[in-house]
Amino acid sequence: MNPRQLQAQMKRMGINMEELQDVEEVIIRQKARDIVIRNPSVTCIVAQGQRTYQVAGDVSEVDKKPAIPKEDIMMVAGQANVSEQEALRALEECNGEPAEAIVRLLERKG
What we know:
Layout: H1 3-12, E1 15-20, E2 25-29, E3 33-47, E4 50-63, H2 70-80, H3 84-93, H4 98-109
Antiparallel strand pairs: 1-3, 2-3, 3-4
Helix pairs in contact: 2-3, 2-4, 3-4
């Protein structure tokens, strides 16, 4: 079946399909990561009032690091008697957990 016949048959069944133009990027945001699709081909399919998007393209994943509040950095730096940069590194290593970062820094000092 050629694409034109397929399109006509889908239309008879109440299914509309449209390719979206000029889409630059599609991002799917999750808690721990983003899925980024560059140079996407995006098709919108409408069937029974429900919209469905089909996406194809160059996929990459980006892990998200938790945002570390300035107050946590300053507290860890003060408690472990280290610079804010060292405190930030320790917090990043400990997934933003201040208590764990302080313990780790104090253990390193010996």
